[in-house]
Write a structure and sequence with these properties.
The protein has 20 helices and no strands. The protein is mostly helical and about 450 residues long. The model has no long low-confidence stretch (mean pLDDT about 85).
Length: about 450
């Protein structure tokens, strides 16, 4: 998750530095960027991620999870290089495309790697660390962007993907992937390393038992000669088809909830909402609250029913967004709201906190759990690509939507989406906490919700 931290800094970089880039103090040679250029800088990350999803999805099956995860460091290193040494808006366009390429790999591969190495009892906790580290990285950028220069921030954060690459080299490939490639001995060594098994009789028995379970799981898939030719026909089974459809809806609701757009434009939103707090300081407050929420998620995700956490957090996020929209509407109608100018910061902080507890991290935990192992790579790629396509539309046209229906209208739309997300989970998604992958697939096939 050091790579998740690095990606968080790349995503969070925009909020503190967008106001600088559009100001007369812009560090670029040609001066301030235009409003249109600013929306492209914001949204091109999603375009890079859309293409990168298929690249890393293919790579995960062809070269393995470990090699592909190592490769995600390269575009993030290049991103910070472009920011540090680029002097034109075109270089920033390239930088954001590269950041998107890295984001695609991280969003796809970190949950996939964690799902395949984790024990059932802690899979949810380990999976939710992804969003926690992503949020810590975002806060790092908010803080550094407020107190350090444009170039100094880039020079420092340049080191994170390099550190990840150096440290992750020692970790093994996932046992599941190795078994699918008929490398059973290597899979056994990997599992032994991951579980900390020694040569004692008890440990050897546990190793044999877990290996037998993995071998049975893989034997239920097509034989190894067909493993390399995964295609859309592999989604013919009811569980795979249903999992893909649920995944596509989940990632759509994740982005249409507006949380990613709100993070990209945090400082700008507070300035437009008329908050008394300095916009960059408000962004830091929100970033810190986001981390608290993410940490809360790691604590409760394996202690509470996933469905209950997702549904409750979705409904509360809807309430928070509705409150922020109502404040904005009253302000647009020239009602004196000076006495309640704390509402934008409080509401957005509450929304980010509650979404970080359940709605945002559980999307990726559930997605990685409900996809059958055979199609996890391709299915994850399709869902992640769709996520970035929706994300591009939301981030690119969020300013235009604010112009069209007002900030309050956007908040109300996001609120309705969060409400829909809770209802969708309640009706269509099975509980996954503490269940093996086989049990989850069985629940999908038999429409078991609890």
């Amino acid at each position: 998750n050091i790579i998740s931290l690095s990606l968080g800094t790349a995503i969070g970089w925009l909020s503190p530095f967008l106001p600088l880039l559009i100001s007369t103090d812009s560090p670029l040679d040609h001066g301030p960027v235009t409003d249109v250029q600013a929306t492209w800088i914001a949204s091109l990350l999603c375009i890079g991620a859309f293409g990168g999803t298929f690249l890393f999805g293919w790579s995960a099956e062809r070269f393995g999870r470990k090699a592909s995860l190592l490769a995600t460091a390269v575009p993030l290193i290049c991103f910070w290089g472009c920011v540090a040494f680029g002097t034109t808006v075109e270089v920033l366009y390239v930088a954001r495309l590269l950041a998107g390429l890295g984001a695609a790999g991280v969003f796809l591969l970190v949950p996939m790697y964690i799902t395949e190495i984790a024990e059932d009892r802690i899979r949810g906790t380990l999976g939710s660390l992804f969003i926690l580290f992503l949020n810590i990285g975002t806060l790092m950028s908010f803080v550094m962007g407020s107190y350090l220069s444009y170039h100094m921030t880039a020079y420092i954060l340049f080191s994170l993907p390099i550190v990840f690459f150096a440290l992750f080299l020692q970790f093994p490939e996932t046992p599941q992937y190795l078994i699918r490639r008929n490398r059973v001995r290597d899979a056994e060594s990997s599992l032994k390393y991951l579980r900390g098994y020694t040569s004692t009789p008890d440990h050897l028995e546990m190793l044999r038992s877990e290996m037998d379970g993995l071998l049975v799981q893989v034997s239920g898939e097509k034989d190894s000669t067909e493993q390399n030719s995964i295609s859309l026909t592999d989604f013919a089974s009811p569980s795979a088809r249903k999992a893909l459809l649920i995944g596509l809806v989940l990632v759509s609701l994740n982005q249409l909830s507006g949380c990613f757009a709100l993070i990209n434009y945090t400082a700008q939103i507070f300035a437009d909402a008329g908050s008394d707090l300095d916009p960059n300081m408000a962004a830091i407050v929100v970033g810190a609250i986001q981390i608290i929420g993410s940490y809360g998620s790691t604590i409760i995700v394996d202690r509470c029913q996933r469905k209950h956490v997702y549904i409750v957090t979705s409904f509360f996020a809807a309430i928070g967004l509705f409150a922020m929209g109502t404040h904005g509407y009253l302000k647009s109608q020239h009602v004196d709201v000076s006495a309640i100018n704390w509402i934008p910061v409080a509401s957005l902080s509450f929304v980010i906190f509650i979404a970080s507890v359940g709605l945002l991290p559980l999307t990726f935990v559930i997605l990685s759990e409900i996809l059958p192992p055979k199609v996890r790579g391709l299915g994850g790629s399709l869902c992640t690509a769709f996520l970035w396509m929706i994300s591009f539309l939301v981030v690119k046209y969020f300013p235009a939507m604010v112009e069209l229906i007002g900030l309050h209208g956007c908040m109300w739309v996001f609120s309705a989406v969060c409400l829909t997300a809770g209802l969708f989970n309640a009706i269509f998604i099975p509980e996954t906490r503490g269940r093996s992958i086989e049990q989850i697939i069985h629940a999908m096939e038999n429409n078991i919700k609890s």
